[in-house]
Amino acid sequence: MKDQKLGKILIIDDNEDLLKAAKIFLKRHFEQVDTESNPGLIPILMVNEQYDVILLDMNFTKDVSSGQEGFYWLDRILTIDSSAVVVLITAYGDVTTAVKAIKEGATDFVLKPWENEKLLATLHAALKLRKSKIEVIQLKDQQQQLLQDMDRKFKDIIGQSASMQKVFETIDRVAATDANVLILGENGTGKELVARAIHRNSKRHREAFVGVDLGSITSSLFESELFGHKKGAFTDAKEDRAGRFEQANKGTLFLDEIGNIPLTLQAKLLATLQNREVTRVGTNKSIPVNIRLVSATNMALHSMVHENSFRQDLLYRLNTIEITLPPLRERQEDIPLLANHFIDIYSKKYNKDIRKAGEALIKRMQKYHWPGNIRELQHSIERAVIMSKHSVLQPEDLFTQNHILPEKQDEMVSLEHLNIEDVEKILIRKALQKHNGHITRAAEELGLTRSSLYRRLERYGL
Ligand SMILES: Nc1ncnc2c1ncn2[C@@H]1O[C@H](COP(=O)(O)OP(=O)(O)OP(=O)(O)O)[C@@H](O)[C@H]1O
């Protein structure tokens, strides 16, 4: 198979003979070779074509050999396209100018008169560089896009109820301070959303927001996850590793499910917060850290202090400011807003033409208990949008599906009509209701680990 010719080259030189010869030779190796003797046309040429490599002479005016013109045009080219790859054509013996040009942003230089093979090798290397520069730009764009999407995703905290307005006011007042914030609330009430909003509105918003879900880390890994470790500190410590505290340096550390932190580690966490330094597992050296701490839990931390399963001094460190998120069933006026917000999102996502939730559905939703709070509402709406044939969602779009079961016992379908999955869903829902959405206790009652209960909640959209 014949090699495919790649690369668009622009040559700028006032010597027409040189341009002609170079074009004839290079056309055999590259996709496109344009030549121009007037450097003043560079900006227009660059607008009309995306050149991969620009071969640029240093001197254009007769009898001038200072290279000043070359530097001027090099600067213009890089201003127009900071990822342009410029190879300079310099006179034999003028290595000082060439070195200076590279410092100013040129990629390489070729000496005049050149040997064709050397020129070819230089241009191929330059082309490779251009390709990787473009890849880097594309990756950066993608990352930017992802960050923007994330930002948008977490920007919309919906809520007009008095209790949510109070939450917004508190976020406004505390975000700019460095005060530690403890967010309390049942599962799915938006604790992480609020933590991110605090970070986004703080002085640290350009730095990292590092979240750790303490509910999903096994207790043996707690310490190394938070504080890091030295290679060899324990069997699986294959290399030195920074913990989440260090990763969040200068930014915000979000400790989710803080109620899960074992008593033995609570003292170390307290010392870290007091001294503002961490000690990696397996070392004695303290590393200073500068973090803003936001923590969250669905557990009753204050009662845990009374039961001696959570240290009071640690609680006082965490809750300089306390924000309690109300469960969804206690702010029914937000239900229509939330439902229509998610209908909008999922109609777009799944390309459906669903306008809103009908009145009967809203009424039905306002009577429902929502043990999984907004997460449950969100998942139910997503499923209803996918399945519904109506342009205005009706009660049966949400409430006849297996995943949302009637709350009242007498509305329940008898066991003989259910399969194992249905029964599992009923049991999980009952356990969650009994323990007020408290995952650890519900998991204990069901004989499941927290993570396998989480997996089921995710699978069933509970
Ligand atoms: N007020 C709100 N407006 C819009 N979406 C919300 C709101 N509150 C929560 N959500 C959405 O509900 C889902 C659950 O929210 P989030 O993860 O913040 O809850 P959580 O309290 O941290 O849950 P968990 O206790 O299970 O960790 C997310 O998809 C979030 O975007």
TrEMBL record:
Q: What is this protein called?
A: Sigma-54 dependent transcriptional regulator
Response regulatory domain mapped to chain residues: 8-127
Q: Which organism is it from?
A: Belliella filtrata
Key words of the record: ATP-binding, DNA-binding, Nucleotide-binding, Phosphoprotein, Transcription, Transcription regulation
Task: List the InterPro entries.
Answer: AAA+_ATPase, AAA_lid_NorR, CheY-like_superfamily, Homeodomain-like_sf, HTH_Fis, P-loop_NTPase, Sig_transdc_resp-reg_receiver, Sigma_54_int
The answer, when asked if RNA-binding is one of the entry's keywords, is: no
Domain Sigma-54 factor interaction, residue spans = 157-386
Concerning CDD domains, the annotation shows: AAA
Name the domain of life: Bacteria
Q: List-wise, which residues carry 4-aspartylphosphate?
A: D57
> PROSITE patterns under this entry?
RESPONSE_REGULATORY, SIGMA54_INTERACT_2, SIGMA54_INTERACT_3, SIGMA54_INTERACT_4
